[in-house]
Amino acid sequence: MTPLGRLFTISILVVGLGSLYPLQQWIDDAAPRQTISEEKLFLSSGNAIKRMSLGLTALTADLYWIRTVQYFGRKVIDSGVPLSAAATKDLRMDLLAPLLDIVVTLDPQHIPAYRFGAIFLPERDMPAATALVEKGIEQNPNEWRLYQDLGYIYWQAGNAAAPEEQNAYYSKSALWFEKGGTVSGAPWWMRDLGGLMRIKGGSRDAARAVYSTYLASDDPNIKAQAVERMKQLRSLDEVDAINSLIARYKEQKGECPPNLRLFAAVLQSINMNIDERGLPVDPDGFEYAYDPQKCKVELSLESTVSR
Amino acid sequence: MATSEIEVRLAAVATPVRYSSSSPRRIRAIALNTFRESIRDRVLYNLILFVLILVAASAFVSDLSLDMESQFTATLGLSAMLVFGALIAIFIGVGLVYKEIDKRTIYSLLSKPVQRHEFIIGKYVGLCLTLLVNTAVMVLATELALLYVNGTFVRLHTAVLGASFLVYLELAVIVAVALMFSSFSTPMLAALFSFAVYVIGNFSKDLLQMAALANSSVSKAVLTVLYYLLPNFSNFGFITEASHGKVVPMGMAISATVYAFVYIAILQSAAILIFQKRNFK
Q1: Looking at the partner chain, which of A1, A20, A30 has a beta carbon nearest the beta carbon of B117?
Q2: Does residue A193 or residue B192 have the better pLDDT?
Q3: Is pLDDT of B17 > 50?
Q4: In angstroms, rounded to a whole number, what is the distance separating the alpha carbons of residues B21 and B3?
Q5: pTM value?
Q6: Alpha carbon A116 to chain centroid distance?
Q7: How far apart are CA A280 and CA A289, in angstroms?
Q8: From the candidates A14, A19, A49, which should be mutated to test the interface with B, based on the most B CB atoms within 10 A?
Q9: How many contacts does A have with B, using Cβ atoms within 8 A?
Q10: Mean pLDDT of B37-52
């Protein structure tokens, strides 16, 4: 190669490398690519996929599990809502149930998949959620966590159901908690929860008892969900406490209190959080909204506590 | 290698060289010889497997994919085009230079009036030609499969054509990557490096996201530099969109083509500079 040729080649290399940055910027700055709706599955039958995986069933299950988590995560990220069952319940996730079903068909011992479905499916597809967890119990009768999850699903369904249907759901919930309690290694409170469901399924005490059991979970999603629900329960109790103080004030003075500062000392004495302005705040630190016209307190619009 | 085969190979390269004084003609001779060599190596036999997969998918997929036969056929065709093409590009590409050195045919070649850069460019063009034929047959097979599934011409036919052009550009970059590594390394290492670049190139968007999340300014800088320096194969990715009937926008086709040409020029220049210095003893 002549010196001129060598210089030419080096020039191409240098100029090429130098142009990569503006070139990639040009491509990245171009009109954003149209998003394609991926609410479709090429292969929807877990059994068909199992046959096609040619013995690599576990690997295929893992790949589908990754796909499920990515699908769910992408929906949550795109929507901008925080990660919780309550926040994500309105997101469209048509593929969540079929994807989870594929995962557990390929790998019936995939406990995280059953538990993921137990948290995030009930509010969008109750039959799919119960079918998934029942399948899990059938395949893994010694996993007491799955009984707990199924009991939880029925208890939640009872809370959302019409009053005349609630008892049927609470009974089912009690049944699964009690069944789970007989599994070797299950904690004592499984049977306790069963009893609680039968006595007062829809009460806050029952809710507190249920969610307390999830606080010790190793799964960060489940734990975060339980923490959020515990905060919600606390805020409900706090709103009730403040409203009862307001009602008493009105009874004595004949008018609504002008603000909530009047109750700061009392509220503090019952372990409620008070901010620097002397106003009660919810578990996430937002001041409760007080309407002096209606004589009523509720969570503020800005509050991040579940309603 | 049998002496007769070496002679045939030498004759194929040497004959045009003897009568062609211009560099482009020598490059063409090497390219055509590389193409012939890959035909002799039965590289195009992969097309049989591809067609079999496509026919089987078109015939049986209706039972599995819930009224998405067309989309599935297009995705399968384009994905197979990319996978088969990338395998050929990497595994044939990494052996292009090494084979000539290993079988000592490089001595005979370079003793003729053939420059080293002509050898590199010729080899590159030859393998690109093989991939062009390979991709063209695959596109034809996919289009026929779509015709069989739909019974008529649909928008997907055009979409597949556009996306396959981008697939081919991506393959051309992969060949350049493999050839660059093969100019100084063993086939095994070159294949490993090329495969690594292929994988990283498909995740380069993540490099930028990682850079945004990185706490250390050094990590941020390194990841950002890597994002711009490594080949970004997402610039050619249009398979998902095409399977939904979207045609490659002109702007994207142009930018991808420019990007591919620039990147190939960089890799070819690097390969030439390295190969110039290489000692064959």
Answers
A1: A1
A2: B192
A3: no
A4: 27
A5: 0.60
A6: 9
A7: 9
A8: A19
A9: 81
A10: 78
